[in-house]
Design a protein that fits this description.
Layout: H1 2-6, E1 13-15, H2 24-33, E2 37-44, H3 45-49, H4 53-58, E3 66-71, H5 75-87, E4 92-97, H6 102-106, H7 117-130, E5 135-140, H8 150-159, E6 164-168, H9 188-191, E7 196-199, H10 205-215, E8 219-222, H11 232-242, H12 251-269, H13 271-277, H14 279-285, H15 292-299, H16 305-326
Parallel strand pairs: 1-2, 1-8, 2-3, 3-4, 4-5, 5-6, 6-7, 7-8
Helix pairs in contact: 2-12, 5-7, 10-11, 12-13, 12-16
Length: 327
């Protein structure tokens, strides 16, 4: 019923799981504007089974529905990880079969599973049987251009009880280079009955419209485009479903968002770790602004929270004044 509600009347927009990014503070910032669903950072099944405190911390959050993505190549660990997450309150378990990062692939997880359909399906089947919540899968088109097998895998995953798929429209060998091929997904409409999301290179609301038309997907998943633009998923959702153009926050509003996000991260991780973790967010939020290069170089050297906040406010104030004069 939970997944059915997400697809009932609209094209849902999901926030993609991004390691080191979509933690509880980031998901809460995106949720301030509105998003159909947010997926947690990818969680190693082995680390979760070992009860790593760092791993548990990634799962904290009160955003509904609570979707936790697990990663691994051991069916036993994946089953145990799924059970632990269900006990912790997960509403949906998502299995990662698409991460292209070398560290993950070398462990046999992520997109490495695309090379072994029997193992992939076995993991999915066991996880489905082990929990009472819906199980979904995120994958890619295939390992490389000579082994595009997402159609075969999609059919098998549906047969073992997977309830939704998300397909990043590149192969593993492409990593994040080239252009996502949304049209490749179109045959899925006739092949499977479960819903699927289109993911990859959806940077604007217009992109989302084209991606839906070409892929036949039931919704979209937004990943890297939301970095520094936590309002983007909502803008896309409002446009594709209601043709409503939601204005981008003003620079003053963006400043307030940045400071709020900064404090959320510090509160969540602690002063030193939180401050250093947020440097990448300062870089993303400042993209396209005047003096951004100098801003990034400077702020990446700062270690005092009060000084950082003062510098951020000054940087935004100068950009606000500059825009006012140009207007």
């Amino acid at each position: 019923m939970l997944l059915q509600r997400l697809f009932a009347d609209n094209y849902p927009v999901f926030l993609a799981p991004m390691a080191g990014v979509t933690d509880a503070p980031f998901r809460s910032m995106v949720n301030r504007f509105g998003v159909s669903a947010s997926v947690s950072e990818m969680v190693s099944s082995e680390a979760l089974v070992r009860s790593s405190p760092k791993t548990f911390k990634r799962l904290i959050g009160d955003i509904s529905p609570k979707i936790v993505q697990i990663m691994g190549a051991s069916p036993e660990n994946m089953v145990e990880s799924a059970r632990i997450n269900e006990e912790m309150g997960a509403d949906i378990i998502d299995i990662n079969m698409g991460c292209p990062v070398k560290k993950i692939v070398s462990s046999g997880g992520g997109s490495a599973l695309l090379q072994d359909e029997n193992l992939s399906v076995d993991i999915a089947a066991r996880v489905v049987k082990s929990v009472n919540v819906p199980v979904t899968v995120k994958l890619r088109l295939g390992w490389d251009s000579n082994s595009i097998n997402f159609l075969s895998l999609a059919r098998k995953l549906e047969e073992v009880g997977v309830r939704m798929l998300t397909i990043h429209c590149r192969t593993r060998s492409q990593m994040y280079s080239g252009k996502s091929d949304w049209q490749q997904l179109a045959p899925l409409r006739e092949l499977i009955k479960i819903p699927y999301l289109c993911n990859g290179d959806i940077l604007t609301a217009d992109d989302a419209i084209v991606a839906l038309e070409q892929s036949g997907a039931y919704g979209v998943m937004i990943g890297r485009a939301a970095l520094g633009r936590v309002w983007l998923p909502n803008q896309i959702e409002r446009f594709i479903n209601h043709r409503e153009i939601v204005p981008t926050p003003t620079l003053q509003e963006q400043l307030d968002l940045v400071i709020t996000h900064f404090h959320k991260v510090i509160e969540f991780y602690g002063s030193i770790h939180g401050m250093r973790m947020f440097r990448k967010h300062f870089c993303w939020y400042s993209t396209g602004m005047h003096g951004a290069s100098t801003f990034r170089e400077t702020i990446n050297q700062m270690e005092d929270i009060a000084t950082i906040e003062e510098y951020v406010r000054d940087f935004y104030s100068k950009n606000i004044m500059r825009n006012t004069k140009e207007a």
